[in-house]
Design a protein that fits this description.
mainly alpha; elongated
């Protein structure tokens, strides 16, 4: 009996000890403290922007000149020389775009694999050769083949230049640079007409009509610029 009383009294003492020392368990997750925001990027100074633009000239804008010269060649007698009739001219225009679209994605893949200075130089030389060959075609089918090849060669220009601009400028700066690039289409249309009017005066030189010299000389001009594009185009800011 005495041993049972001792065990009972010991249990009472232990229970009273636990009641006097209450323990609380805080199982709530720790409070999340977000990291401090990064410091705002400093805007480029006007001198830095001018220097960057000067280091990356847009020689690829000559593609607009080579793309729109077929309209000037039509006025110079293209349809009559190649015996085109009906919708032949419209077909020659339309056949350019399916190949242009099909070449865009593969071209950007090659742009990422190679360097911009290398790939832009390659496609510029390619479309310069295609434009020049358009000046020596003998029939409508030859013109179609040359237009198809020109579409493949120029297909990488727009997506390539878009990717190239995003590598050099921040997001809020890309819009203005892209607008400058697209405005080259209007400038090429205005300047191309004046240039074609002067070149058309060469009709009969070498036994070729005026529209032929429009393609040949403008293609050779692009080829000349393409030979300097490798040194004029920088690759990436880190290089």
């Amino acid at each position: 009996m005495r041993g049972r009383r001792r065990d009972f009294s010991g249990s009472l003492i232990y229970i009273s000890f636990l009641s006097s020392h209450s323990y609380t368990c805080d199982c709530s997750p720790p409070k999340y403290t977000p990291p401090p925001p990064p410091p705002p990027a400093l805007p480029a100074s006007p001198s830095q922007s001018i220097r960057l633009t000067r280091k990356n000239p847009p020689p690829c804008s000559l593609s607009f000149l080579d793309r729109t010269n077929i309209g000037n060649a039509r006025l110079a007698g293209l349809e009559k020389s190649l015996k085109m009739k009906g919708l032949d001219y419209n077909i020659a225009l339309a056949v350019f775009f399916p190949f242009y679209v099909a070449a865009e994605i593969p071209s950007n893949m090659m742009l990422k694999k190679l360097r911009p200075s290398v790939w832009f130089t390659i496609i510029m030389i390619a479309w310069a050769i295609c434009t020049t060959l358009m000046g020596i075609v003998k029939n409508f089918h030859g013109l179609l083949l040359a237009r198809m090849a020109l579409g493949i060669a120029e297909g990488g220009l727009f997506p390539g230049v878009t990717f190239y601009i995003t590598m050099w400028y921040r997001r809020h700066e890309c819009g203005f640079r892209m607008a400058l690039f697209f405005s080259a289409a209007t400038a090429a249309g205005a300047f191309g007409g004046l240039l074609a009017r002067g070149i058309n005066e060469m009709k009969g030189v070498g036994g070729r009509p005026g529209w032929s010299w429009i393609f040949i000389l403008e293609g050779l001009l692009t080829l000349l610029v393409a030979c300097t594009a490798y040194w004029a185009i920088n690759d990436y800011p880190k290089t």
